[in-house]
């Protein structure tokens, strides 16, 4: 029940969004921009999020690849010891899961940013 309450609280925080009114020109009566100025600067090509993503995601991918290499080395140097092989398999599994999560995150965020801008 505690987990359910936590998930309900997190979902209400992430799923609720503020209503953003479009600014309109009183002479034309049409919206001038789909996003407020601060949000459009945030999601622009040279915005803050673009710079953060350009640093974090390649670094996370590099870390995953390094862990895959470390797991391969652990597996090769296990010399038939089942406990070392199991440790290497666990490391390899989690490194691949991490790499998949990073790639999916990049793809999902690109879709969201294209949808918003």
UniProtKB/TrEMBL annotation:
The chain crosses the membrane at residues 52-73, 94-116. InterPro entries: T4SS_pilin (IPR043993). Keywords: Membrane, Signal, Transmembrane, Transmembrane helix. It comes from the Bacteria. Residues 1-21 form the signal peptide. This is Uncharacterized protein. It comes from candidate division WS6 bacterium GW2011_GWF1_35_23.
